[in-house]
């Protein structure tokens, strides 16, 4: 929701200056068992919203709980949505995005990203991380821009890759 | 959303990769139908990288079912009306 002075108002807080890029961006979270995901998701959402993008973060209940607890006033996260509800909405043509950043540290994450690649028109960035990131990257069989970092506890390598693709 | 949890199902393969699930269905069932990712069946939207196969055997359908934290399962479920919907896709 936009306030009169051009700020995005969240139900739990306020902030994020808006220049209004008109881009709708989906951040698709995977299983939250690898620590860097939550930290990078908050940072990524912050960067996208600061440039005026409209951000939706989709994930499992646990992934969203972790992110929301770290952002109690909603300064960084945009709208949030259950991951399967999000896939359903895109599949049924009820919503779509211009860009998608999908997190994957496992085969299941790749399967979700591959689904988005098929059902959405969004340009897809695939963030591959975790100890097996490089091997996992070799299994990707669909069009996407891969950002690969062997990051588990240290978010810096993924942050660097994100900074390179977000202007 | 995921009504599969409320159905009677048999797990044929558990916590495998999506590719293993795809190969299992393709190699173990005579009637195999390709569906697009996001295909709606039992009020669930199938997850996977194309080609995504669903098997049909007798009154049952065999589907890959992916959960973000647990990987992919291959499940056998009573097909009911879903079988005709699948066959109509061919």
Description:
The complex is a heterodimer of chains A (167) and B (90). With 167 residues, chain A is an alpha/beta fold. Chain A has a single domain, classed as 3-Layer(aba) Sandwich (Rossmann fold). Helix content of chain A is 37%, strand content 24%. Chain A has helices at residues 36-50, 61-69, 83-91, 107-119, 133-137, 156-165, and strands at residues 7-10, 13-17, 24-28, 54-59, 79-82, 99-104, 123-128, 145-148. In chain A, the strands form two sheets. Chain A has a six-stranded parallel β-sheet with strand order 5-4-3-6-7-8, with helices on both faces. In chain A, strands 1-2 form a two-stranded antiparallel ribbon. Residues 1-16 of chain A have low confidence and may be disordered. With 90 residues, chain B is of the alpha+beta class. Chain B has one domain. Helices cover 20% and strands 43% of the residues of chain B. Chain B has two helices and seven strands; from the N terminus they run E-H-E-E-E-E-E-E-H. Chain B has helices spanning 18-28, 82-88; strands at 9-16, 31-35, 40-41, 44-45, 52-57, 60-67, 71-78. Chain B has a five-stranded antiparallel β-sheet, with helices on both faces. In chain B, strands 3-4 form a two-stranded antiparallel sheet. In chain B, a hairpin with a 2-residue loop joins strand 3 (40-41) and strand 4 (44-45). The radius of gyration of chain B is 12 Å and the shape is globular. The A-B interface holds A 30-31, 33, 59-60, 62-63, 82-85, 87-88, 90-92, 106-112, 114-115, 117-119, 139, 141-142 and B 1-2, 17-19, 36-40, 44-45, 47-50, 66-72.
């Amino acid at each position: 929701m936009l306030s009169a002075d051009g700020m995005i108002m969240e139900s739990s807080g306020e902030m994020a200056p808006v220049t209004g890029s008109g881009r709708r961006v989906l951040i698709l979270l995977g299983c939250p068992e690898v620590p860097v995901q939550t930290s990078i998701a908050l940072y990524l959402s912050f960067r996208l919203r600061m440039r005026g993008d409209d951000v939706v973060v989709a994930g499992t209940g646990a992934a969203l709980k972790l992110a929301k607890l770290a952002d109690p006033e909603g300064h960084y996260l945009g709208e949030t949505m259950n991951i399967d509800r999000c896939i359903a909405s895109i599949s049924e043509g009820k919503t779509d995005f211009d860009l998608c950043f999908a997190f994957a540290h496992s085969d299941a994450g790749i399967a979700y990203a591959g689904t988005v690649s098929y059902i959405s028109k969004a340009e897809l960035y695939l963030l591959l991380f975790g100890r097996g990131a490089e091997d996992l990257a070799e299994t990707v069989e669909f069009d996407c821009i891969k950002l690969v970092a062997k990051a588990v506890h240290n978010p810096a390598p993924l942050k660097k890759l994100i900074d390179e693709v977000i202007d | 959303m995921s009504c599969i949890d409320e159905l009677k199902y048999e797990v044929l393969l558990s916590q495998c990769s999506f590719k293993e699930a795809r190969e299992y269905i393709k190699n173990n069932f005579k009637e195999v139908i390709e569906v697009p990712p996001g295909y709606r069946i039992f009020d669930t939207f199938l997850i996977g990288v194309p080609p995504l196969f669903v098997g049909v055997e007798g009154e049952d359908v065999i589907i890959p079912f992916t959960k973000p934290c647990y990987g992919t399962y291959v499940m056998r479920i009573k097909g009911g009306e879903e079988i005709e919907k699948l066959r109509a896709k061919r």
